[in-house]
Amino acid sequence: MPNYRIHKTEYIDETKRVSFKYDGKTYFGYEGDTLASALLANGIHLVGRSFKYHRPRGIVSCGTEEPNAICQIGSKKDLTEPNVRATELELYEGLEASSQNCWPNVKFDIGGINNFISPLIPAGFYYKTFMWPKSFWKKVYEPLIRLSAGLGKSPTEPDPDIYDHKHVHYDVLVIGGGISGIIAAKMAAKNNLKTLLVDDKKILGGSTIYQNNENIKIDDKLSSEWLKNEIHEIKKLSNLTIKTRTSIAAYHGYNFLLAKENLTDHLPEEKKKNKIRQRLWKIRAKKVVIATGSIERPLVFNNNDRPGILLSNSINKYLDYYGVTCGENIILFTNNDSAYETSISLHKKGIKNLIVDLRKSASSELIKQAESLGIKIYFNHVVTNTFGYRKINSLEIMKLSEDGNTTVGDKIKLSCDCLGMSGGWTPMVHMHTQSGGKLDFRDEDQVFLPKENSEDQISVGSCNGDFDLENIIDKTVNKINKFLDIDNQDYQDTNIICSKENDKRNIWLLPNKIPLGKTKCFIDFQNDSTAKDIKLALKEGFRSIEHVKRYTTTGMATDQGKLSNMHALGIIADTAGVKMGTLGTTTFRPPFTPLTFGTLVGRNVGKFFEVVRKTSMHEWHVKNNAEFENVGQWKRPWYYPKNGENMHDAVQRESKAARDSAGILDASTLGKIDIQGTDASEFLNRVYTNAWSKLAIGKCRYGLMLNEDGMVYDDGVTTRISENHYLMTTTTGGAANVLSKLEDYLQTEWPELDVYLTSVTDHYSTASICGPNSKKILNKLFPNLDLSDENFPHMSFKEAKLENINCRIMRISFTGELSYEINIESKYGHSLWKMCIEAGNEFNLTPYGTETMHLLRAEKGFIIVGQDTDGTMTPSDLQMDWIVSKKKYDFIGKRSLYRSDTIRKDRKQLVGLLTDDPKEILEEGAQIVSDVKSKPIDMLGHVTSSYFSPNLNKSIALAVVRSGKTMKGQKLIIPMENKNINVTVSDTIFLDKENKRLNA
Amino acid sequence: MFLINCPFCGERDQSEFSSGGEAHIVRPKQPTELSDDDWAEYLFMRKNIKGIQFERWNHVHGCRKWFNVVRDTSNDKILSVYKMGEKPPVNYK
Asked: Which CATH superfamily is domain A898-999 in?
């Protein structure tokens, strides 16, 4: 097996050998490696296939910007993870990784045929091709695209890992632990500011930490040695917290940032167990220092995507940090000085290399050093083509013309096994723009830079466009002193020596004799978009960068275009003949690097996903086999199946029992608002449509509450408990919103009213007993209470004691039966319920759930707000004009009841529907029409409630129908998928119109 | 995510609050006297300013008090908070 690890470094522990599997084969690396460095040490460059053309692709970078080396980790159904960048994944014993997007394997990939038919798959291919025939989309095109697309496989079972959230507050947050971040953190912490420094890598130091060029020195030491000492110093600072393996995912307004801390991803399987995998930090910082550095740019030339072609500085990091060389015969292709550092490093380790530089000449210290070491440099040359299928083996270079627009002279063919490219550096302005910051463009080296426009954050170091060390340190120190309003002198006498870059030349799309249409100049490696695609998009009329991006999918892969966006912009600007700075950029959105769902969700999984509210009777319902329905956060009994009954049978039985003898409902979830104060009556007058001033103490009244737009908002019964004391009930789902609305009016519109509101929903439990035998049951429970109609009539209220406990009893009815609601302090709710059940035993007292409640009220034509109304129904639409006071001067929504729209005669209005076939049950939501032949069919309304009534032995329904009020007796049609159902418009009250049962 | 300085509780996370739209729209004292158009003006018409906007906020998961906020909608900076019934600050017109 080849070994490309050629020297020892302090970051690789050669005493700790680590075995791992890649594509099923076992390899070895060392502790300190990433998966990428370990693969390269084993001579493996080829790690995947490209998304569209399935071209072989190799490792390109050493960090978050990696477009190609993305892997599937593990194979367990619950733990496997796709799209993990091998350049970021720390190696651990037992790691299993595999390449993605290739079948049957990475070396022989059937999809590779796409490479040969690529002239047929230009930009927008999918949009253009799969348009017709329309019917093919769902059955042919989509499944095929889904099969061949996609990167990796999602886990198919729930994630067993533990994730955590943490909220923290700091004076200063420093993002990035490179040289400028370390300086900033030290200055802040030494000036008594509580500081947090985060870095996504395992150790601090950024790219300076492995720097070893004698031309770059601080205080006479190698910059890496100087920085190690600084790191040692800052670790002693008590008010500085350092978090490594922690990356900022999102920068929100008000300096609220999310960071992901990796806790166990670098540990072997057995050490991960029972530990928190990742922690999401929710950080509020008074000030933020962005020191996120910059990433190297690729160069765009023909066949620039072969395995073995890497970013030049990544070759340097693999060599000097991991001790691994990416090849034995390396060519570096550059337009700037930084590749010379790589070249000199390689030369020192005895690796043969030469430089192709597209600049005409250059003259810095680094270049002089390279020349003196005898490194061959081709100035004013460009790479025009590369060769080698699974790995690069040679390339061609040509001389550039004077203006750089074309190539001249003869091709020179050079052999190599690795190509390093450097197209300059792109400052990582993501955090700055995420925070709302704008950008400036610097023409000199074609970079977007943060505009200083926010008082709460600042960018320092190379993310601010400062690339040489002297500039970085001086500017960082000055800016931080100003930003934090401090006067730190620590770096005043620091002596910095560094090479200064004097010459620049940038060409976004490098010239070639071959016509563009026949080249493969890749811009976005992961999504396979080329320079040709960008030009085609422009030719087809796309101008906005946001449109070109979407049409060509440039920058839309999992790397979010970290390597490709600048080149796309540059080529658009060149082609369209505009200045790049005027084009703007695409929007950088969070997250900076992908986050797992687990991290976002944290502990809120399973039973902690959402709050569940249970009544005090809940355990009884569970014991008695209730099926539950979610109403808001409440669990309400839906029905109580007996002896294997289905829902229909259970509901029929419950409904019949309630009308024949007695039924009992847990009504504890209804919203209850305690209203007190000398203006309580006036307040109710203003919020309900009907009059309240004359309600006697001890009486109850049904009220309808509107929005200011006149539409029904909520309903419920309110009881006058004493002169200045009412108890309001609301719908279960509306309780919180009604309270908020009432508070809003009290605080903002009517602050002069003396009214106090308290939510008492959870304070009382309610058992509602209805049916002809309910009075007898009540009598057993409250033998001292006079239940006669004279003493305790319908719509009235009594206080009574159950044993020694006070109860509030309302004689009110939502079923049309004689009915009592018993309210008791919640801690006694369960006992109350059991006593009711026991007392009702001899009367077949039947517990019923929400479904039976809905059926019984529909028989009586009582509405349910939210089911029969949808925010567009006025009281008149519901045929409830009787509840709207004509005398009251004002109430919420009154003025809206006679707007031109609300008085229209042809509004949708509530009606009853009876099916011609009494056994036919309508579907709720079904459309209603009068004529199925006319096209388009005129939709008149829809069914809102529908049941089979066991008490009437026929199907009944409520519906809203255009001009429904005038349509009684008219025939209508409900068109269903297979048939038309004939119905007749009826009254909304189906049972006991005379309300005789209330006093039965 | 805003940090809102509730005039009753101090600085709290935005997730504790709910927004109530434009501030200083007074409910007419005599709605029945208004024309359809005037009522519609009160009911539906709201400014949607890019720039300095006066808004109502409710500390719904806190003290449940309504109060007013002056916010620059172009950068989400909250410039001032003041209680219901207090006069709006004059320097933000």
From this structure: Aminomethyltransferase beta-barrel domains (2.40.30.110)
